[in-house]
Design a protein that fits this description.
The chain has eleven helices and ten strands. The protein is of the alpha/beta class. Strands 3-2-1-4-5-6 form a six-stranded parallel β-sheet, with helices on one face. Strands 7-10-8-9 form a four-stranded antiparallel β-sheet, covered by helices on one side. Strand 4, helix 7 and strand 5 form a beta-alpha-beta unit. This is Potassium channel protein.
């Protein structure tokens, strides 16, 4: 029974550890044998073991050498067995290191950290977001899940990549979804809008099923799918199509701006959006009055969220109500 349990434990040990155990056992065996065969040349078992390691590793210091025929035969057996094992052990470590690097690049390794951001979908928006996040906080831990990307260079993008489908529990487990801080789902613009939104909603359902409290930011392309995304468990909905349509309308109906819009976005990237509930003293106060009060604390009030709907740049005389969420820009 004991032997059977030992075998089960041994076969579960990684191959590198097995090799190391085998090498140590063989070196101790040959070191003990050479001590008893030539006690004068090898006065202690430790000297015998030292000779065994030096000989098997082909270092050959020459401080201990067998003199008798029996001792030399032991040396030959040691070189044929121990030398090969040590060479295989070193090559296994090297190949294991290379394989690990390849697994990281190809998204096959699970993420073991906590308090991280999970981004779903690899595209230009995600690439720029990673750049901005790491510029603001180089220590931020980011996990990227994508099913189309085959590999990513860690030296170019210092993130943890997982290749797979975010609708599958196994992939979310590899991303350590239970201990993540928040999730951002970006729409797949290669697919049509309905297919992209369907995938986003399915991924939201899977994420919410694995972590019922995590904030989920979902990009939805079709207005008709917003309610479905909210029912699936999305915390925040980003309607990128609406924003781009408004931007196109602005450019079509206004004269050409001196400053390119990209520069305006760059300026906004140096600000931080902040959401917080309206304070009791601001309830029943006008939007303009509250805005004047908040700007003294470096908060630029740009709108409110009421009943899960954004109201950006509302009328100055709009009265704030209990339960409103104030949306501000804060200088970094």
């Amino acid at each position: 029974m004991i032997i059977k349990q030992f075998k089960l434990i041994y076969f579960r040990i990684p191959i590198i550890i097995k090799l190391l155990i085998t090498i140590v056992f063989l070196m101790c065996f040959f070191g003990t044998v050479i001590h008893f065969i030539e006690p004068t040349q090898f006065p202690t078992i430790f000297e015998g073991i030292w000779w065994a390691f030096v000989t098997a590793a082909t270092v050959g210091f020459g401080d201990y050498v067998p003199l008798t025929t029996s001792g030399k035969l032991i040396g030959i057996l040691l070189i044929l067995t121990g030398g090969g094992l040590i060479g295989f052990y070193v090559s296994s470590i090297a190949s294991g290191t290379i394989k690990r690097e390849q697994d990281i690049e190809h998204g096959r390794l699970a993420f073991k950290g906590t308090g991280h951001l999970i981004l779903v979908g690899w595209n230009e928006r995600t690439r720029q977001l990673i750049k901005i996040v790491l510029e603001k906080n180089p220590n931020e831990k980011i996990v990227l899940i994508d099913r189309t990307l085959r590999h990513i260079s860690f030296s170019e993008y210092p993130i943890h990549f997982i290749n797979g489908d975010a609708t599958e529990d196994a992939i979310l487990t590899k991303a350590n979804i239970r201990q993540a801080e928040r999730v951002l789902l970006t729409a797949d613009l290669i697919k049509n809008e309905r297919q992209a939104d369907t995938y986003t909603i399915l991924a939201t359902v899977a994420i919410r099923g694995n972590n019922e409290n995590i904030p989920i930011i979902a990009e939805i392309l079709s207005k008709s799918q917003i309610e479905n995304a909210l029912r699936a468990g999305a915390t925040t909905i980003i309607r990128s199509n609406d924003f781009m349509s408004a931007l196109f309308y602005h450019e079509l109906t206004h004269s050409l701006a001196v400053t390119p819009f990209e520069d305006i976005l760059h300026i906004l990237s140096k600000q931080q959006f902040s959401h917080f509930p309206v304070a009791p003293e601001f309830v029943d106060k006008q939007f303009a009055e509250v805005s004047h009060h908040l700007i003294k604390g470096d908060h630029l009030l740009i709108g409110i969220i009421r009943e899960k709907k954004y109201n950006i740049h509302p009328p100055p005389d709009l009265l704030l109500e209990h339960g409103d969420i104030l949306v501000t820009l804060v200088r970094l």
